[in-house]
Amino acid sequence: MRRPDSAFSAFKPERVSGLKALELMAEGDTVIHRVHTFVKLTATIVYVVVVISFGRYDIGGLLPYFLYPAILTPLSDTPWRAVWRRLLPALPFPLLGGVSNIIFDKAPMIMIGGVALTGGVISFASIMIKALLSVWAVLLLVATTGVSELSRQLSALGVPDAAIVQFNLTYRYLAVLADEARAMYESYILRSADIRGIRVRDMGAFVGTLLLRSIDRAERVYAAMKCRGFSGSYLAPAHGARGKIGAPDLLCLFAVCAAIIILRCLS
Description:
By secondary structure, this protein is mainly alpha-helical. It contains eleven helices and four strands, in the order βααααααββαααβαα. Mean pLDDT is 81; it is low at 1-17.
């Protein structure tokens, strides 16, 4: 068999389709799953805001914040492999945004083993760590709560219906888009059995076709929603609603937020 042509083999739609698994993880019954949604949502928001608040050269101050997701992951029985498979697709975005720092900020900052690290390299590492921690925390929130419960809590907090509907549609449509990409990928491979990925020369046509199919699918999804009475307002499902927040939940929220803020003040 001849060698495969040059291919964009890193594109694997089946790796993205695991978004649906987050909903299954949210049905668990661990100590983290049982914590009230308001507590998890508020703690995650505080955590992300504090992480983002660090300066672009402050890598040392960010390192202790790995404890938060590293502790929650085993406590919630969230598989490490599942976390990393969903973290990796989000990292190229900060990667592309941080590369310019390396190019333009060339002032030496510190010396390690005789090698001078520039401010651009340090700020690039800071951006990547912030993105990693933030996405990790949000993934754990979804994996231990579920989108429906998060939407219900956002509605209870007074978030506008338009924002909640947009959040739900975006999240749900990612799985639909992944299904379309997987179907196209499988069709492509069946027609090109001697390769293991999409050739670079075919990538433009593949992405363009995926865009057209996704637009058509979105129109059909919207038409189906309108037939079922969708009016643009968010209607919280009645089943599965959490009870009132209790004293243990409030104590947990205070302890977590206090630890996050104290670490920030000490750094």
